[in-house]
From TrEMBL:
GO terms for cellular component: plasma membrane. The lineage of its organism: Bacteria, Bacillati, Actinomycetota, Actinomycetes, Streptosporangiales. CDD domains: TmCorA-like. SUPFAM superfamilies: CorA soluble domain-like (SSF143865), Magnesium transport protein CorA, transmembrane region (SSF144083). It is found in: Cell membrane. Keywords: Cell membrane, Membrane, Transmembrane, Transmembrane helix, Transport. InterPro entries: CorA_cytoplasmic_dom (IPR045861), CorA_TM1_TM2 (IPR045863), MgTranspt_CorA/ZnTranspt_ZntB (IPR002523). The chain crosses the membrane at residues 265-283, 295-315. Belongs to the CorA metal ion transporter (MIT) (TC 1.A.35) family. Pfam families: CorA (PF01544). Its main location: membrane. It is a multi-pass membrane protein. This is Magnesium transporter. It comes from Planomonospora venezuelensis.
């Protein structure tokens, strides 16, 4: 369901009114309008674009999904593309948001209803004394909620990576194939998440550099969002590096186990070669010491046992068996 709100002089005076009434509200210099559209069609945004004077390229970007996170500046408004994230069934789900920012109107366009817009509304309502700063305050609450959601995704991923590290060194996970699959999925998720979270730092930084957009009172609040976005980007890079180290350790472990197997096989092959050598020697068609006598059998048997024991002890001492 689409949501609408009208603030006048920092006070909420009307909400959930038809979007068709937006043009009347926007004409009031003391009014601030917010309306939210979920999964819009071309006609919805075209009408709003005409009423608010939105650029046709921004409207086109809002209608097409998988846009790059960005901040575009036009003559009469700003256009922001951002992605909210949440963790569902151990998978990162991203929701694209298109945001139009004018002097006295904030328009949010959601690609799907998965984004919890009610949580943003509750955040706005918790700061009633700040609503008087208008659209910049509403935009701050929205961006702050998006960035805070990144930490709710990164913390469980951090816990999973630590669990993989523990399994790697305590030997509790014997299925290397399953562990490699989990590591690969984690790295793939982090790469996709980084592609969406990293540009948030540039978006908030771009807003801070536009002094005419943000009231000086709100600059510390935007600076806090910028610090959180920077921390989320650095945390993502750190987790991606940790996953890469785990994957490399997996490969080293597999190589180490293969070397152990090869040492054992080679050692047993050397031990087996001793009786093969002796029996082959005594199988000659020429006379040799003890040929045709019982003593020759016992000498060959003794040589086999003695040679095998000597090699076994030598390999065992070097931890090859």
């Amino acid at each position: 369901m689409d949501r609408t709100r009208l603030y006048r002089n920092g006070v909420l005076v009307k909400e959930n009114f038809p979007i068709d009434d937006v043009s009347e509200c926007v004409g009031d210099p003391g009014a601030v309008v917010w309306f939210d559209i979920c999964t819009p069609v071309n006609g919805d945004l075209a009408k709003i674009g005409e009423e608010l004077g939105l650029h046709e390229l921004a409207v086109e970007d809002a209608l097409h999904d998988r846009q790059r996170p960005k901040l575009d500046s036009y003559d009469s408004h700003l256009f922001i593309t951002a992605y909210a994230a949440r963790l569902a069934d151990r998978r990162i789900e991203l929701t694209e948001l298109s945001i139009f920012v004018t002097k006295n109107a904030l328009v949010t366009v959601r690609a799907s209803p998965d984004f919890d817009i009610e949580a943003v509304v509750r955040r706005w309502d918790a700061g009633t004394d700040m609503v008087r700063y208008g659209v910049p305050y509403l935009l701050h609450g929205l961006l702050d909620h998006i960035v805070d959601g990144y930490f709710e995704v990164l913390q469980p991923l951090d816990d999973r990576i630590e669990a993989l590290e523990d399994e790697l060194f305590d030997g509790t996970a014997d299925d290397l194939r399953e562990r490699n699959r989990q590591t690969f999925e984690l790295r793939k998720s982090l790469v996709g998440f980084r592609r969406m979270a990293l540009p948030m730092r540039e978006i908030v930084g771009g807003l801070l550099r536009r002094g005419e957009v943000i009231d000086p009172v709100l600059v510390p609040y935007y600076q806090d969002v910028y610090d959180h976005a920077l921390r989320a980007a650095e945390w993502t890079d750190s987790l991606r590096e940790m996953v890469g180290n785990i994957r490399e350790a997996h490969q080293n472990q597999q190589g180490f186990k293969l070397n152990e197997i090869m040492k054992k096989v080679t050692s047993w092959a050397a031990i087996i070669a001793v009786p093969t050598l002796i029996t082959g020697f005594y199988g000659q068609n020429v006379p040799y010491p003890g040929s045709g006598e019982p003593v020759g059998f016992w000498i060959s048997t003794g040589l086999i046992v003695a040679g095998g024991l000597l090699l076994y002890r030598a390999f065992k001492k070097r931890d090859w068996l």
